[in-house]
Amino acid sequence: MFNKEEFRNFVESKIVNLYNVKGSLTKEQILTAICQFDCNINEYLKLKPANCSLKLHRIFDLSNKPRNVSINYWFLYIFGFNRCYKCQKILLISDFCTINRFWNKINKECKSCNKISKLNRNKIRDKEY
């Protein structure tokens, strides 16, 4: 079961370099932005994508993070979880099917949503024939 407080502590433990420069992000702002999954981090922090990415790369060691992956989903993956894009639930990685098309080899929908989608596709196909 996903625990937001444990996830927040996990992300906080990954902070490598938090510097206090005028106009820099506070620890609280960073943690809140990464622990929300409703919008992009740069939108949440009201920063330009390039500025946001540069600041976050200075704060965290993101050398292994794929370029096209959002930082909050990257930390979620490292933490052992993934978010289903259909039901929006955060579930263990084991609750997802594997698929080679994606960066983390995990399907975007959980097994239960995938099963429902498959049933719906079969119903549509049966109606057509």
Secondary-structure blueprint:
Layout (H helix, E strand, L loop, with lengths): L3 H10 L13 H8 L6 H5 L3 H11 L11 H8 L2 E3 L6 E3 L3 E3 L7 E5 H18 L1
Antiparallel strand pairs: 1-2, 3-4
Can you walk me through this structure?
This protein is mainly α and 129 residues long. It has two domains: 4-79, no CATH class; 95-129. It has helices spanning 4-13, 27-34, 41-45, 49-59, 71-78, 111-128; strands at residues 81-83, 90-92, 96-98, 106-110. The strands form two sheets. It has a two-stranded antiparallel sheet. A two-stranded antiparallel ribbon has the order 3-4.
Number of separate structural domains: 2
Q: How many H/I helical runs? A: 6
SSE ordering: HHHHHEEEEH
| Total strands | 4
- Give the CA-based shape: elongated
| Average pLDDT metric | 87
Uncertain residue ranges: none
| Proportion in β-strands | 5-15%
The portion of residues assigned to helices is 40-55%
Distance between the termini: 42 Å
Features:
mainly alpha; 6 helices; 47% helix; 129 residues; 4 strands; 2 domains
Summarize the structure in short:
By secondary structure, this protein is mainly alpha-helical. It contains 6 helices and 4 strands.
